[in-house]
Amino acid sequence: MSTLPPFSSKVFFAPMAGVSDPALRLICKELGAGLVVTEFTSIHAIVAMKDKLPKITDFIEYSDKERPLSIQLFGSDLTELEKAIKIVEPYFDIIDYNMGCPAPHVTEQMACSALLQHPELVRNIFRTMVKATTKPITVKLRAGVTAPDRWQEIAKIAEEEGVAMITFHPRTVKQGYSGTADWSLIKELKQLVKIPVVGNGDIHTPEDAKRMLEETGCDYVMIGRAACQNPFLFTQVNEYLETGTYREVTFEERLRCFFRYLDYTKNYPTIKFANIKMQAMHFTKGKEGGKELRVLIGKTQTREELRVLLERCIPSEIII
Q1: Measured between alpha carbons, how far is 12 from 25 in angstroms, rounded to an integer?
Q2: 94 near 135, Cβ under 8 Å?
Q3: Catalytic residues
Q4: C-alpha dist (Å) from residue 169 to 29, 101, 114, 172, 306
Q5: Which strand (E) or helix (H) includes residue 253?
Q6: Do the Cβ atoms of 297 and 277 come closer than 8 Å?
Q7: pLDDT at 143 over 90
Q8: How far apart are the C-alpha atoms of 78 and 180, rounded to whole Å?
Q9: Which of 147, 95, 104, 99 is nearest to 121 (CA)?
Q10: Residue 104's pLDDT band (boundaries 50, 70, 90)?
């Protein structure tokens, strides 16, 4: 088993398709995320693009400032999986495998959470990945498809085959993102395996993060939707774990941070303007008159239009 790199904090930023773009990951890293992970990427796409693009960053965008950086892969063809790992391993510190995405268009490909019902295939996948690289292999799991049934078997297989860390989202595929994540399963997993466990699901506040660490014994926590709406959550969680208190963030600070995000997006051509506007709406939540402001955000057509609109919201002397 390869050794994991050191992490600067116990709180990680979850990969989310169409959301966790490289500019947002960099912001989250700056604000205290101990680990950030790329949006999940098809092994078939990586292999197909290798000969079409001169550099991997033309296809999978990232910054060295994000390190340690993990790339998340999906796909179950063992030959293609090995090829994809060989392509990406020089650029990333960790290679993560997605067994959590519940989206039907993905699970229909015998990928992600569909694999929870096929432990022997999973064993071959982990064995192939560990043998193909010297970089640590990690995995993200859900609790099951319709019920929390075979995740224990999958977790033990992961440990046996040399997987270095497990991230566990204790909802089923059927649940999607509804209902409540069953944190007791995270505690059970931590007692089942000796490798590090990352708890994921229903962390909205610093208090939630601390409670998950204490109740489950997990080594790290991973935050997704709440963090993309408030990246300052990483700073607040770290402060709360260290001191027992944390500072609220002003709207002006949030907006300043958004302008930094907006500047970073210029370095990444694959980030769609629709995604940038979505982040602007997240960053402006909580402002008085925010609903009307978000309507105006939706009408902007360029980064400059968006910047001019938002600059009207705060005093000019604090714009950076």
Answers
A1: 10
A2: yes
A3: 101
A4: 22, 10, 15, 8, 35
A5: helix 251-265
A6: yes
A7: no
A8: 34
A9: 99
A10: low
**Contact predicate 193/159, CB 8 Å:** yes
Say which amino acid occupies 116.
Answer: L
Instruction: Name the nearest CA neighbour of 102 among 144, 65, 71, 68.
Output: 144
What tokens does 127 get?
A: 């064995």
Q: What are the CA-CA distances from residue 257 to residues 93, 208, 226, 312, 319 (Å)? A: 27, 24, 16, 15, 10
Tokens of 221: 């926590």
Alpha-carbon distances, residue 68 vs 161, 224, 283 (angstroms)? 23, 18, 25
Residue 155 makes CB contacts below 8 A (sequence gap 6+) with 141, 166, 168, 189, 192, 193
Burial of 90 (0-12, 13-18, 19+ CB in 10 A): exposed
The pTM is what? 0.91
pLDDT one-digit tens code per residue, 146-174: 777 889 999 999 999 999 999 999 988 77
From the list 233, 230, 229, 223, the residue with the least C-alpha distance to 201 is: 223
Residues found in the chain: 320
* Residue recorded with tokens 């994540």: 181
